[in-house]
Write a structure and sequence with these properties.
By secondary structure, the protein is mainly alpha-helical. About 50% of the residues lie in helices and about 5% in strands.
Length: about 180
């Protein structure tokens, strides 16, 4: 009995954590259609009552940024050196699927947050931290925030994040909390 428990413990998936260095991948324009980390196109047709949480109810839709399935992330694989740090980061496709679930649950703001997070996965961690610090009250001028938004669009195709930063710059200006 003890050996059976030990064997099953080795096969327990390790939960992925969010990260920022994964390369962005795109979804098709069709609702519920997703390109996984391996490039395979799937039709999600998500129903939050049935499919949430995705890792439990729709694991076939989830991949690591390197293309591994969740069931491949096991303690045994970690100990064998078959799992790298990039495997423990969240893939942009997963965040987009979570956005679909949020939208379907009547939570569009949460869905937009997941979509922006998906865009941020293409950025290095240092760049995300730089943007975070720039968005602190009185930390940046309106011009600096506009430059960050332009860079996000131009270099990373992060249009949703760029839009949010421009909106923040306008709000900061109205509230008088821009840097001078």
């Amino acid at each position: 009995m003890t050996s059976a428990k030990a064997t099953s413990a080795k096969k327990t998936p390790v939960k992925a954590t969010s990260g920022k260095k994964a390369q962005a991948r795109t979804t098709s324009g069709k609702k519920g259609s997703v390109r996984t980390a391996s490039g395979k196109k799937t039709s999600a047709n998500l129903d939050p009552r049935r499919d949430y949480p995705l890792a439990s109810h729709r694991p076939e839709l989830l991949r690591t940024p390197t293309g591994k399935r969740l069931d491949e992330i096991t303690m045994e694989a970690v100990l064998a050196g078959e799992v790298v740090a990039e495997d423990l980061r969240i893939a942009p496709e997963t965040l987009r699927l979570q956005a679909e679930v949020a939208d379907s649950s009547g939570r569009p703001q949460l869905g937009q947050n997941f979509r922006r997070a998906a865009e941020l996965t293409a950025l290095p961690d240092e760049k995300v931290l730089e943007i975070y610090n720039a968005l602190r009250p009185r930390a940046s001028t309106k011009q600096r925030l506009a430059e960050i938004a332009e860079e996000l669009e131009r270099d990373h195709s992060a249009t949703l994040c760029a839009r949010l930063i421009r909106e923040a710059a306008d709000v900061y200006e109205r509230r008088g909390i821009l840097a001078s």
